[in-house]
């Protein structure tokens, strides 16, 4: 079952899985950060729930720009290492695609670190195209 995570307890239940993707996250800062992003940026969390555990989680937001029109941007997507290859990532991607379509979005977007080869194989299987380079300049 996939559900949006809205209560403090639900959000905190995603921390261990999200930390596999974002090891710099500190548990004490996690909830305040998510709440701030929800308020300021429309950030949302969805999770696969299986036997009261969170094997897969996605952080995303809806947006619009001149280059893509309305979009759903996936900022974070991770399946726990112990739960890989069981269909959770595909189920989450299908859920996000339905949500995007139902929200009037033209595209589903995400960025992926250049070193994440396994994730890239998954995204290509899920019919994503590599359409641009993402550049970052530390300040």
Taking all Cα atoms into account, the compactness measure Rg is 15 Å
* Number of strand elements: 5
**What is the strand content?**
25-35%
Helix percentage: 25-40%
Query: H/E order of the elements?
Result: EHHHEEEHEH
CATH homology superfamily: Gcn5-related N-acetyltransferase (GNAT)
The count of domains is 1
Tell me the major beta sheet.
Answer: 5 strands, mixed
Shape: globular
Q: How are the strands of the biggest sheet laid out side by side?
A: 1-2-3-4-5
CATH topology: Aminopeptidase
- What is the annotated CATH architecture? 3-Layer(aba) Sandwich
End-to-end separation: 40 Å
Name the average pLDDT.
92
CATH class: Alpha Beta
Q: Given the helix and strand composition, which structural class is it?
A: alpha+beta
Q: What is the overall number of helices?
A: 5
Summarize the structure in words.
With 139 residues, the protein is α+β, with helices and mostly antiparallel strands. It has helices at 8-12, 15-21, 27-41, 88-102, 117-125, and strands at residues 2-4, 44-50, 53-65, 69-79, 107-110. Strand 2 and strand 3 (53-65) form a beta hairpin. The relative contact order is 0.14. The mean pLDDT is 92.
